[in-house]
Every structure is written in C-alpha cells, then in structure tokens.
Design a protein that fits this description.
The structure is a single chain. This protein is an all-alpha fold. It is built from 3 helices and no strands.
C-alpha cells in the first residue's frame, strides 16, 4: 500500500514539475503527507504485531529411576540396530 501511494505521489510530481515556485511547495507538502502516512502505518502495524519473546520451557525433572530406564532402552535399541 505504501509503495503504491509513494509511486502515485512521485509520478504526479514528475508530470507536474513545470512550475518551480508553487510546485516545489506543493511537492514538499505532498512528501510530508506521504511521510506522515508511512509513519502512521508503521506505528499501527507495530501495535498490531503479535510477536513476543518466547518463554523458556520448564526444565524436565527426571528421577534416577527414569534416567536408568531411558538409558537402558536407548542402549537396547542401539544394540538391535548394529
């Protein structure tokens, strides 16, 4: 949307550049308005953004028994595949 707006504003400016005095003031106003629209859109997009830092997952507390069983299972699976 911003690219379309800026392209339209700059295309009109190039075709209407025949008067130097009043045209340059009008062009400056148009560029200021385009910049204001761009800033407003950027602020609105930033406020609507749902990005947020992710929390660290809770650490898994594994008992000694669970660790022993998991180790044994992994060892047995490794021996089967060899």
């Amino acid at each position: 949307l911003m690219m379309i707006l800026l392209t339209a504003l700059t295309a009109d400016r190039k075709s209407a550049s025949d008067s130097a005095g009043a045209g340059s003031v009008r062009e400056t106003d148009l560029l200021a308005q385009a910049a204001a629209v761009g800033v407003a859109l950027a602020i609105a997009e930033q406020q609507l953004s749902s990005a947020h830092p992710l929390k660290d997952p809770p650490t898994a507390i594994v008992s000694a028994w669970q660790l022993g069983m998991r180790t044994r299972n992994l060892t047995q699976k490794g021996e089967r595949h060899r």
